[in-house]
Amino acid sequence: MARILVVEHEDGTGPGYLGECLVEAGLELHVVRPYLDDRLPESLSGYDGFIVLGGTQSPFDDEAAPWLSAVRDLIRLALGERLPLLGVCLGGEMLADVAGGQVTHATRGPEVGLRRLTKHPGAADDPLFGDLPDAAPAVEWHWEEILALPPGAVPLVGTEPYPHQAFRIGDTAWGLQFHPEVLTEAVNAWADHARDHLATEGRTPADVADEVRVAEPELREVWRGVARRWAGVIGPVADGRDGRSDGLRAARC
After folding, report:
1. Do 192 and 29 touch, CB atoms closer than 8 A?
2. Catalytically active residues, by annotation
3. What are the tens digits of pLDDT across the range 170-213?
4. Which of 78, 167, 184, 190 lies deepest, with the highest CB count within 10 Å?
5. pTM, entire model
């Protein structure tokens, strides 16, 4: 069974629905929680993929989250080794920064709640996003933005205020600004915690949660497909890296 390293940055921001779909696709998730003093590995030996999840930290918030430096090192290793990599929100911002892009505080304010994604031309041939339906729904929850993509990165989808919602580096690394792992239950908790922030945007926890609840069947279908396609990248890439094939077939969809 292919083994995936997953970095979780704080309570309530775990792999969620994305993790369920990846396990269903035949992957084993090894979730490391450095905020609970779990030790991050110094290498990616023994792993067939790497996921960096989201959190309320900024990509440069090393004082509050001193493990971020080690996560950046692992991202560099994954890029260098062509290990399949998926960065979600904070993870996507960290990937963009490590690879030479520009990340900053969101210039047009936070983007919170359900949004519809517009596909860029580069998505047409992408292994994950090529089959994404037009106007696919996504849960947004970010106060930072990817202002400029890394050199050579392929833009995949965006929203009107923030065009860099997903991108690919090479053929094994993807960064996302939105949250494919999040459904109504998580949004309920996040919105309640952020009710003061939402009020400044003229939103309430109830209306944010309601729009996600209405779209949940569609969210499940769309992001289950993307999760399974990312799982499908694992086996062939791992085979090419070290000649292994045993135990990886279940990850191919």
Report:
1. no
2. 89, 179, 181
3. 999 999 999 999 999 999 999 999 999 899 888 999 999 999 99
4. 167
5. 0.93
